[in-house]
Write a structure and sequence with these properties.
The complex is a heterotrimer.
Chain A: H1 7-14, H2 31-35, H3 46-54, H4 58-62, H5 75-79, H6 86-99, H7 108-123, H8 128-136, H9 141-156, H10 170-179
Helix pairs in contact in A: 7-8
Chain B: E1 5-10, H1 22-32, E2 38-44, H2 50-63, E3 67-72, H3 75-88, E4 96-100, H4 102-106, H5 112-132, E5 139-142, E6 147-150, H6 154-165, E7 170-173, E8 188-189, E9 194-195, H7 196-209, E10 213-216, E11 219-227, E12 230-237, H8 252-256, E13 260-263, E14 271-274, E15 276-277, E16 289-290, H9 296-300, H10 305-309, E17 322-328, E18 330-333, E19 337-339, E20 356-358, H11 359-366, E21 387-394, H12 409-424, E22 427-432, H13 442-451, E23 455-458, E24 463-465, E25 477-483, E26 488-494, E27 496-501, E28 503-505, H14 509-516, E29 543-545, H15 555-575, E30 577-580, E31 585-587, H16 597-601, E32 607-610, E33 615-618, H17 628-632, E34 638-640, H18 645-655, H19 658-664
Parallel strand pairs in B: 1-2, 1-3, 3-4, 6-7, 6-18, 7-10, 18-29, 20-27, 21-22, 21-27, 22-23
Antiparallel strand pairs in B: 5-30, 8-9, 11-12, 12-17, 13-14, 15-16, 19-28, 24-25, 25-26, 31-34, 32-33
Chain C: E1 2-6, H1 17-29, E2 32-36, H2 47-51, H3 53-70, E3 74-76, H4 79-94, H5 96-106, E4 119-121, H6 122-130, H7 132-138, E5 147-151, H8 171-178, E6 182-183, H9 197-200, H10 202-218, E7 223-226, H11 229-236, H12 239-246, E8 254-256, H13 257-264, H14 282-294
Classes of the chains: A mainly alpha, B alpha/beta, C alpha/beta.
Chain lengths: 187, 665, 295
């Protein structure tokens, strides 16, 4: 009889290629959360999230905003006394939650990442104005106005790209991407 | 003439019988090996029990057995048991072999049929080998009654006193100018809060004046030759530049010496000392030491204030290293520990941010005889801290530095918390991952600290920074940490940070291990013979370890190990001679070509070369019978009693069942 | 002339054009040629790694393969691009199966990854390949009295643990000293600028930017020097929003280290696109002009 894979097993498998130790090695010391600049804004600290993963609390983990608020500064990874690659864990959770389409409502991260990937597929390069659409509408009025002001300022200084850049061999590029079947497929 | 061999196959409960058909193996041996000399083959539930042993003894008497083969567990466990049983029955113990059908068969295989066949082969190999065994007598070497204790910290002092009190002579060698070790640096000791010096100095004085202890401080061991019972040790005594015969310890030289240097040994860099100095007032011996590299006379040829003012003319600038060779029967290594260097963790700010202290620095701060007279003040020497943060696990439990737990830091951190409360009334925060308070009175000490109002924050400190984010953080050291019990990141501004740095093996532990012929682990701690059952003995007979040299531990444990090592030594001395296992290599000098390949291969330095005869010789007392030289000798000139070529080849024949197949032809 | 394959990265095309221009100009002055990689594609930033790791590796591998074709080491001025290429290079070299999979995709563009070039961050080239002595020798206008907060950020240091000093590095300060400027003691120098959080978690990002600005200003810096376009944009373009969010009034110019180095090497400010910032550095930089006049 095959054993059913637990959530913590699933996440461990996702981290298989990373060079860190397994999540089981976590002694819950809190160095990661003490270091992380985003911790004050996360609903679960990175340490607590690892405890939740080890406890197989799948839905609660995917419902948190922790992994989407990771800035991937890797400070946690280099300080972890159990040598767990926590930043890589956050990437893995992001991928997992995109794959399962299970994440907190109103998060900008997932939409932003998807838009980014689409932009690359379209032209081989990123293009800020399109990316802006993924978050602009979540801003309040005053914030929107500030943003517009900043954008105008940048435009006047010649720093805002007006037209998207494209790579030359775009067709080959797209076929190249097609040869890697991503989790979830490309639309 | 064939031998009369008894074969005994053990069930070991179900450990062996569960996977091997033990009755079948015994029957097989009786039948198929009969022509090889097996006259009786039995199986029994527990061979190592008294009844099991009696079975063998009965057969020796009644059947006139000349060889015994027991098929059971690993020889590491019960070889001695069965050999002793044979000895008591009048059979030379070395005519008994124990073959493993447990660790090597039943515990590692899952196919019962195959395991049974393998067991038969193993028994057969034992039988073939034992035929070639010879009756051997243990090698007896005399034990020199003198002993050597290396390291004058609490463990070494304890060991030396125990041996000396029992009436035997001890050399106590210490590298620093005074004995006392790290314990002499501490202020109070946990959990009793005894003053460290008050409990240590009586022992130091005893050791310094004991008629049976030859105290050699400012000295180091440079060479160790010989073997258990008969070591020849070379000790280098560095020049004090003070004549001990004339010095009265009056201290005038230290007063008059015009040059101060930072004392980074005893005062942990916090205070100064003179160039000619006693490390602390209660130093034993009382004779000061002159620090030559810093001495104005030795550097420039001027000064000599100490000589001018010494009332007894005890200063002698002409002293040099002196070498002494001593004979001892046993050695105890008690060389202690070094502190983890927190500079390796830059985010804690040690040395970069002024008011971050290591544990040893803080001990000196608290010590009444220390650089601030026991006042807990900041680096400016004046300001009393209003908030103090104590960081646990600095450099310990961390795969980036030392993965192990340093054992004493939790208690030490609690002690610091108490001292800060007591002397400054400051708010104290202890930042920990776990509170480790295992021994007697330790948990109660933790309770006491809780009652004193210590703020315990469960979280490993992420960093110590000066980047203030609001007015209450200005000018402070900010400790950023996740309070894991609340699940929130906190920034706690403090005036002083104390880093409970872990303890590490001495920086030269690998060299020390090599010097004494010991092994140390990858971390650098000396390796004991058995971590559970024999923590003070080593694999080298006659050399013992005690105290932190064996691993992190507190003062009571160090004292216990010092006493335990002393007891072992005294036991050996009482026996006057020691019986060594006769499983040894020996060189057939007729075959030896003098190539000397074996000399350097021997891990125990047991092979000497005779220049005059151009042949090598194995010292049976040092030889541990590992067999390396036997295999290496290109001329096949070395054989081992207990592992001769004949024995090994016979073992192989037996294993391959050649002895049976011959019959089938 | 030492030559490298140069990967500007998407942001250096417009948003961080000053970094692009000043990098090429200052490297040229130091005898290093940066040859832009032909038809390079986006490195995937962090967002690609949120969707699929293998795809993200492929994107990076295409650029590595392009550099390999030129037989030149790849230099990236952006810390994010640098980190992506460095680790893709390392992982593909260690794992032949992964490399096979990626190479299968690269075939579509007639490319192949072999793992025979190294990846460098632009500052490494200044510090390790050119060296402080050489730079000092070529400085014609030392930035005397200019107090610089050397902002390392994250990905130029982490997660490379083989890097000697990830917590308290000094090479950026040493570089600033070499060009005559005065690096200040900047406690938050290795803390994160918030990266993409400026988009996805504005609140967190603004607090991180505020902390960095406060630390730099408190240290007495005239200007913050950065080594990554994301850091520069986050620190420079949102100062108004930071002030609004926290009810404070802070301001500090933020320049690229190549702009400062370029100035010191005697390149004209407009050639380094100094003046295209939202927070103009001219007041801070005017100090130096006075300084060199006295020199």
């Amino acid at each position: 009889m095959a054993d059913k894979l637990t959530f913590s097993d699933e996440i461990s498998n996702l981290l298989h290629a990373s060079h860190g130790n397994p999540l089981k090695a976590c002694i819950q010391c809190g160095t990661c959360s003490g270091t992380c600049p985003s911790t004050p804004f996360m609903d679960q600290s990175p340490r607590r999230l690892i405890a939740m993963i080890n406890a197989n609390m799948k839905d609660e983990v995917l419902a948190s905003n922790t992994h989407w608020y990771c800035a991937s500064c890797f400070h946690c990874t280099v300080r972890c006394p159990s040598e767990i690659d926590i930043a890589e864990l956050m990437y893995a959770l992001k991928r997992y939650s995109m794959w399962k389409n299970q994440y907190q409502e109103d998060l900008i991260g997932p939409t932003f990442s998807e838009t980014f990937v689409k932009t690359i597929f379209n032209s081989g390069r990123s293009y800020e104005p399109v990316l802006a659409t993924s978050y602009l509408f979540s801003l309040g009025v005053q914030e929107f106005l500030s943003e517009a002001q900043t954008a105008t300022g940048l435009m006047l200084k010649g720093r805002l790209p007006l037209l998207p850049a494209r790579i030359k061999r775009l067709k080959n590029f797209r076929r190249m991407i097609g040869r890697i079947i991503p989790v979830g497929g490309i639309s | 003439m064939t031998e009369r061999i008894g074969v005994y196959v053990c069930h070991c409960g179900t450990n062996i019988a569960g996977m091997v058909d033990v009755e079948g193996v015994a029957k097989w041996a009786a039948e198929k090996l009969n022509h090889r000399g097996v006259v009786i083959a039995r199986d029994y539930k527990f061979m190592c029990s008294s009844l099991g042993q009696e079975l063998i003894q009965k057969d020796i008497h009644e059947l006139g057995l000349t060889r015994v083969v027991v098929a059971a567990c690993s020889p590491h466990l019960h070889e001695q048991t069965f050999r002793n049983a044979c000895k008591q029955a009048g059979l030379n113990p070395y005519l008994c072999e124990l073959v493993s059908i447990r660790e090597q068969v039943s515990w590692v295989h899952t196919d019962k049929a195959a395991a049974t066949e393998k067991s038969k082969a193993v028994v057969s190999s034992g039988v073939e080998r034992v035929i070639w065994n010879e009756p051997l007598e243990p090698i007896r070497v005399p034990i020199h009654p003198d002993s050597l204790v290396v390291g004058g910290g609490i463990a070494g002092i304890q060991a030396a006193l125990e041996i000396a009190d029992a009436g035997y002579h001890v050399y106590l060698v210490e590298r620093e100018p005074s004995i006392g070790g790290h314990m002499a640096q501490f202020d109070k000791t946990f959990p009793t809060l005894d003053c460290s010096a008050c409990i240590l100095t009586p022992k130091m004085v005893q050791a310094g004046s004991h008629p049976n202890i030859t105290l050699m401080t400012w000295s180091e061991v440079t060479q160790v030759d010989g073997y258990v019972g008969n070591f020849t040790v070379t000790i280098k005594q560095k020049p004090r530049y003070v004549n001990a015969e004339l010095c009265t310890g009056c201290g005038i030289c230290q007063e008059k010496c015009p040059k101060k240097v930072i004392d980074d040994v005893y005062e942990a860099g916090l205070g100064n000392r003179k160039v000619i100095y006693n490390p602390f007032p209660q130093a034993v011996p009382k004779y000061p030491v002159l620090d030559r590299p810093n001495c104005t006379y030795f550097n420039k040829g001027t000064c000599k204030a100490c000589e001018k003012f010494c009332p007894t003319g005890a200063i002698d600038f002409n002293q040099t290293d002196e070498y002494f060779q001593v004979n001892v029967g046993n050695i105890i290594l008690a060389t202690g520990f070094d502190l983890f260097d927190p500079l390796r963790i830059p985010q804690y700010g040690y040395k970069r941010l002024a008011n971050v202290y290591t544990s040893l620095e803080f001990e000196r701060l608290c010590n009444a005889a220390g650089p601030t007279n026991g006042n807990i003040v900041l680096r400016d020497g004046v300001t009393i801290p209003k908030t103090v943060g104590i960081v646990h696990c600095v450099g310990s439990r961390d795969k980036n530095y030392n993965a192990y737990c340093s054992s004493i830091c939790c208690m030490q951190s609690l002690k610091f918390a108490h001292l800060v409360h007591e002397r400054t009334g400051a708010e104290v925060y202890n930042f920990y991952i776990d509170i480790r308070t295992p021994s007697k009175g330790y948990e109660e000490f933790y309770q006491r600290l809780l009652e004193e109002g210590t703020h315990f924050v469960r979280g490993k400190v992420a960093e110590v920074t000066t980047a203030a984010r609001d007015p209450k953080e200005e000018g402070k050291l900010i400790i950023q940490v996740e309070d894991t019990l609340i699940g929130k990141q906190r920034r706690i501004p403090v005036d002083m940070v104390i880093l409970s740095a872990g303890i590490e093996p001495r920086s030269d532990s690998k060299e020390t291990a090599h010097l004494f012929g010991l092994s140390c682990s990858a971390d650098g701690w000396m390796i004991e013979r058995h971590p559970k059952l024999d923590p003070v003995a080593t694999m080298t007979e006659g050399i013992y370890i005690a105290g932190c040299v064996q691993g992190p531990k507190d003062i009571p444990a160090s004292v216990v190990q010092g006493a335990a090592a002393a007891a072992r030594v005294l036991g050996k001395i009482q026996q006057k001679e020691i019986a060594l296992e006769p499983i040894r290599a020996s060189v057939d000098q007729d075959k030896c070509s003098g190539c000397r390949i074996c000399n350097n291969l021997c891990p125990f330095n047991a092979i000497l070369f005779h220049e005059d005869l151009m042949v090598s010789e194995v010292n049976p007392a040092l030889c541990q019978g590992c067999g390396t030289c036997v295999a290496a000798c290109p001329a096949g000139a070395i054989s081992g009693t207990g592992f001769s070529n004949e024995q090994i080849l016979a073992q192989m024949d037996g294993l391959l069942l050649h002895n049976i197949q011959a019959l089938n032809v | 002339m030492k030559k490298y394959a140069y990967f500007p990265g998407c942001s250096l095309e417009k948003m961080a054009l000053s970094y692009n221009v000043s990098s090429i100009a200052s490297m040229n002055k130091l005898g290093v040629e940066l040859q832009e990689l032909d038809d390079w594609n986006c490195c995937g930033a962090t967002a690609y790694f949120h969707i699929d790791e293998l795809l993200a590796y492929t994107l990076c591998a295409r650029n590595l393969a392009l550099a390999e074709k030129e037989n030149l080491d790849l230099v990236a001025p952006c810390a994010g691009c640098y980190k992506n290429f460095y680790f893709t290079n390392a992982h593909l070299k260690e794992d032949p199966d992964l490399a096979d999979h990626v190479n299968f995709a690269l075939e579509e563009d007639d490319l192949h990854f072999s793992g025979n070039i190294s990846v460098r961050h632009l500052m490494e080239v200044f510090v390790q390949d050119v060296g402080f002595e050489e730079i000092k020798a070529k400085v014609s206008r030392p930035l005397k009295d200019l107090k610089v907060a050397t902002y390392y950020g994250c990905q130029i240091l982490r997660p490379r643990k083989d890097h000697e000093e990830t917590e308290q590095p000094v090479f950026f300060e040493d570089l600033m000293s070499a060009i005559g400027a005065t690096p200040v003691d900047f406690p938050e120098k290795v803390r994160c600028c918030s990266g993409a959080l400026i988009i996805t978690n504005r609140k967190a990002a603004l607090s991180m930017v505020r902390n960095l600005m406060m630390s730099a200003i408190k240290s007495g810096a005239d200007v913050i020097a950065t080594a990554c376009p994301m850091c520069q944009v986050n620190l420079e373009c949102y100062q108004k929003q930071v002030n609004q969010e926290f009810g404070i009034d802070l301001s500090i110019p933020v320049l690229y280290f190549t702009q400062l180095t370029g100035l010191a090497l005697g390149i004209a400010p407009n050639k380094l696109r100094i003046g295209t910032e939202l927070v103009l550095p001219t007041p801070a930089l005017s100090n130096i002009r006075r300084g060199s006049a006295d020199a």
